[in-house]
Design a protein that fits this description.
With 108 residues, the chain is mostly helical. It is built from five helices and no strands.
Length: 108
């Protein structure tokens, strides 16, 4: 999924508790689902960032190369400006983009 084009807020906002709880009718269950999705998003973003930073990795101990690498700094700044994983997860939840199921409710 492309998290770079997310419409999630990049600053703190207040959400309506009833809208968050609406799909499950249980605020605690909804928050648990959102938290698990946020962990998935965070893992995806972290692995993507590490992959991009690996392109700049040098395996020599040259002091000039270690001192400053503008491209690497720009990549890091870009990822710092992205919305937080929890904000993306809440936005996905409110838009109905998260699939979830409760195994206890499944009947055979």
């Amino acid at each position: 999924m492309d998290y770079k084009n997310s419409k999630a807020a990049s600053s703190t906002i207040t959400y309506d508790k009833n809208k968050i709880a609406e799909p499950t009718s249980n605020i605690y269950e909804a928050i648990t689902i959102i938290a698990k999705r946020a962990q998935q998003i965070n893992g995806d973003l972290k692995s993507e960032l590490i992959e991009k930073l690996e392109e700049f990795a040098t395996y020599t101990d040259s002091l000039d190369e270690v001192f400053e690498n503008k491209e690497q700094i720009e990549v890091s700044k870009f990822y710092e400006k992205l919305p937080k994983a929890t904000a993306i997860a809440v936005e996905e939840w409110l838009e109905g983009k998260i699939y979830y199921r409760n195994p206890e409710e499944i009947q055979e």
